[in-house]
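Q: HTH gntR-type domain-containing protein, please. Structure only.
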Amino acid sequence: MLDFTLDPAGSEPIFLQIAARVRSAIAAGEIAPGARLPSTRALAARLSVARGTVDAAYAALAGEGAVLTRGSIGTVVSGAVGARPGPVGHTPFMFGAIPASDATPPLPFRVGLPALDAFPQRLWSNLTTHAVRGFQAADLAGSETAGVLALRQAVASYLGAARGIACAPGQVLVTAGYQGALTLVRHVLVRAGDPVWLEDPGYHLCRQALETAGARVVPVRVDQDGLRVAAGVAAAPRAKLAVVTPTHHCPTGVAMSLPRRLELLAWAAEAGSWILEDDYDSEFRYSGRPLPSLKSLDRGERVLYAGSFSKTLFPALRLGYLVVPAELAAAFLRAARLTSLALPALEQTVAAAFMRKGHFTRHIRRMRHLYADRRRALAAALQTVFGERIRLEPAAGGLHLLARFPGAADDTELVRRAAAAGLAPSALSPLALAHDCGHGLLLGFANIAAEEAEATAARLAGAIG
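A: Structure for HTH gntR-type domain-containing protein:
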C-alpha cells in the first residue's frame, strides 16, 4: 500500500505530491474505505521526508474529506464500505479545519498570546471614550485606505526610535494583523509559480497563505545562525521573495547572525528579489543587546517590514502594519483598495493615541520585565519538576520556551495528552516541511503567573508522563 516515488525537483510541493498519490490510490480502489493509512512517522521514513511534510499532506486530505483522523486509531480512509471516492482536484483552501475559538480564558502554555491579565484595560477604555467624543461627522464616513494618518505617523516615529527604521508615514500601511500584511505582499509581489523562500521549520499559516496564491514554496533550513542563505540560493537562486523572522525565528527562537543578514541583503540586491521581515516578538528580548532590524540595514530598499499589535497589545485588536519601499507605496495602496478597503477608524485612533501619549513605550517596558519574571519562573519550575527528562533550548527573547523530552513519545502525542488535561502546548515537528527539526513542545509562558509556574509544570508532567 502507498508504494510510490516523489519528484523533489518538481514544481509541486512535496506534501501536495504525497496527497495526490494517496488520493489517486483511494480513487482507484487500492485503499478501501475504512482502511488505516500508515502513521505520519512511518510514511515519512519510507519516503525519506520530514514528518511535517506528511502531516501537511494528511491535513490536506482531511480538509477534502478524503480521510478522517480518529485519535489513537490513526488516519483512515473515509466513505461507506464498498464506496469508491471519486478523484478530488487540489484547491488552494484544502487545509485542515480551523478550530473554533471561544471567549474562555487562555489555556496554560498557549503560544502567541501576550499577558492578557496585565493589559491596561481601564486606560484603553478611557482613550476609546475620548476618541469617540472627538469624532466629527466626516470621521464616520470611513478611514483612509492606508490607515488613519495619526497611527501611521505614530508607527513611523516608533520604528525610527525603537528599530532604527527610517520611513515616512506614506510608506506605512495599517493592516489586519500580520496576515493582512502578507495578503498585500502576495497580491503585489507574488505570481503563480513564483519561487518563495520560507524558513524551515516555520510559521504554517504563512506557508498556507502563500500556497493559496500559487507560489512555489521553497523550504530553506534554519540553523543556529538563522536562515541558511546559501541553501536558499542553491534551491532557488532567483526566488521572488524570502520571508524571514530574523530577530526571533518562529518557532525555534534563534536570531539570524549579522553575517547571515548581510548575506541575505546582498542576495536580494543581486537577484532583484524582495524580503519580507516579520519582526514579531522583537520588543521582548531578555538578554544581550537588542538586535537591529533587518530593515535598518537595508541600503538597497529590498526589505518590506511587517509588525503587529497582537502581541504588544492584544490579538482581538487585529491591527498590524507594513512598511514598504517608497517605490512600491503606490502599488501597495492600490492593492489595499482592492483587498481590504479600510480598517475601522476607532481602533486605529485609539492605538494612535496610546502610542502618541507614551503609553505604548511604557507598556512594552512593563511587559518586558513581567515576561522575564514569568519566563524565569516557568523555566525553573520545569527543570525542577522534570529534572533530566527535559531539555530547554534557550532563546534570548520571545513569549514561549522550546522544551525537548529525550526518549519521550513524539510531540504530537504529547500535545494530545496535554490537551486532554486542559493544557495547550504546541508541537514542533509538524512545523517542518522538508528538514527534520526533531520533536519538542512550544510552551507559552506569558499568561502563567510566576506563583503558578510550579503547579502548572506539575500538571504538564502529570499529563504527558
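A: Brief note, in case it's useful. The chain has three domains: 1-99, 139-358, 361-464.
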